[in-house]
Amino acid sequence: MSGAPGKVEILAPGMMTTVQDWPGRVGLWRVGVPPSGPMDDLSFRLGNWALGNEEGAAGLECTMVGPRLRFGAPATVMVTGAEATPTVDGEPAATWEPLALAAGAVLDVGTLAGLGLAGLFFAYQVRRFRRAATVVPELYEGQSPDMPGW
Asked: Fold for domain 8-139?
């Protein structure tokens, strides 16, 4: 998969990296699904806003140690949230500002301060994900993300 166009290769997953969207799952307690979404929703929404994504577009949220990713196509990304030590191709990179990555670039989010959370947002194909969770509609009274009330 190395260098495949439009793909993001996970070289290291980080300690706990999840795909989140805002506001997450709300209003589904009645079927056993608690509210969800990003823990640091302000940083999450600001990262999407800075990249021109929809406020609720999916992104990665990581805890303590972030992922290391190789991009198969040029991409613009942004690391927000807790103080982090990101690098691009081994060189220090900024947080809280868009980073233009070349095809084949390796982004390492690095270690986060304390027990902090960081968000990683993409300004290209990843934003096409409408929802970040995978569900089995049959288990939730036939509801799906495309149905009203989801």
From this structure: Jelly Rolls (2.60.120)
